[in-house]
Amino acid sequence: MERLYDRGLEAGRVDAVEGIEADQLHEECGVFGIFRHSNAAELTYFGLVALQHRGQEAAGIATVDGTKMYRHRGLGLLSDVFSGGQLKELIGDSAIGHVRYSTAGSNTVENAQPLTFTTHQGNLAIAHNGNLVNAHKLRVDLEKTGSLFQSTSDTEVLAHLISRGEHDSLLENIEDSLKVIRGGFALVFLSNHQLIAARDPNGLRPLALGKLGDSYVVASESCAFETVGAAFIRDVKPGEIVVIDEKGVQSTMFVKQVKRALCTFEHIYFARPDSDIDGYNVHAIRKQLGRILAEQHSAPGDIVIGVPDSSISAAAGYAEKSGIPFEMGLVKNKYIARTFIQPSQEMRDSGVRLKLNAVRTVVDGKRVILIDDSIVRGTTSRRIVQLLRDAGATEVHVRISSPPYRHPCHYGIDTSSKGQLIAATHSLDEIRQEIDADSLEYLTVPELMTAFGYGRGEDYPFCNACFSGQYPTETSGGKWEIETLQEAGV
Prior knowledge:
Number of strands: 26
CATH topology of the largest domain: Glutamine Phosphoribosylpyrophosphate, subunit 1, domain 1
Low-confidence stretches: 1-21, 338-345, 477-490
Largest sheet: 8 strands, mixed
Number of helices: 18
CATH superfamily of the largest domain: Aminohydrolase, N-terminal nucleophile (Ntn) domain
Mean pLDDT: 87
Number of domains: 2
CATH class of the largest domain: Alpha Beta
């Protein structure tokens, strides 16, 4: 069997900013893949740079030259993991890569992806964006029948399912395994001679297909295509497997599409504003959310400011609709990453000031309308409001471009338990008092959906479970809540 050359190096564990990052939502990861390009490793690296916002705890790239597979992975940002010329050691003309924020499994180098395996069918690398809600049950069943696991990542469960497949074809074994797992996933697989991409039947997590010359690429977001000079072709469909090999691109559905349910937080917060996901431009949606806020939840103010970076588009939309001037009242320190070490409690307590600065000359003496995309625990919102008051703001009116976040996500977003979500335990006025705002308003779910062109009461093809508690799948494994497996065509 071909030898796997693992060039993984542990970059060292780093801690998130308490009170800032712990109070924000985190996408689990981003994936990228390219088939048959002479600069596969380098292009994968640049594609991952464009997706760095989706995961900042770990990164990795695996390549294949048709016989041997090479891999380098580690903890930290891409610039940390690939700081010593490791890209030159990743030989081959096909590659997949991954940036990770850990939701399932701890942040150890063993859980860094891509995961790589040698099987009787050849080399296999897997990179996964999302979360499998039945991973624990499957893992227990696999362990009872002899499987040994090297990590705590739910992605390894899928690898064991594939290795136990009864078919001679790797693709057929992947297809059978995808029918067993439940949850949200965008997956890329790399074998000796194929690049395979798959998206969950609900389309919870995004995945796109592009082309660069004679090569094909896949990525979590279309912004990665722009970075490497590729052209966007289309989104991978929910329930679809895309196979890329010497014959070109072939497509098959591993399950009939069940209720489409793209995560709305991709457009509200996670995705880059220059990405297009399932036909919607992220910046355009966020700007429309701001307009709707101005129409439905206006506030008295002299200036409108957004919390950088994800709320700037919504703030611009609010200002445009309301006629109130948009200003850069908060400036983000670009050199404070999500994963940096805080040496003292004093620094943790002042963490927001390390990451954000209020522009005193802009906000002093002004009634400020502050636009943000969400409130999770409330600690960051309270500190931002205090920043503005300390800078001289006479009033701070907070407007949120999403509904209240009341329920945990089980599909790849790292959220606290329901008891730690402030909107699940506090009334609107209690939240307002907690964050010390003069007024506070959120969008409603129907108002959110109007930004995508849907009317009140329509059947929305989005997952809004974090707002409504209505999950598109069973959250603990085994059975679909929306449709049975028989109805789904499994």
